[in-house]
Amino acid sequence: EAKAEGRNAICFFDPAMQAVVTANAALTSELRQGLRNQDFVLHYQPQVGREGGMVGVEALVRWQHPQHGLVAPDSFITQAEDSGLILPLGQWVLETACTQLAAWAGRAETEKFSIAINVSVRQFRHPEFVEMVMKAVEQAGISAHHLKLELTESLLAKDMDVTIAKMGILKNAGVTLSIDDFGIGYSALSYLKYLPLDQLKIDRSFVKDVLTDPNDAAIARTIIGLAQSLGLGVMAEGVETEAQRDFLARHGCHCYQGYLFSKPLPIEELEVFIQRLPQTSS
Ligand code: C2E
Ligand code: MG
Ligand code: MG
Ligand code: MG
Question: For the whole model, what pTM was predicted?
Answer without folding.
Answer: 0.93
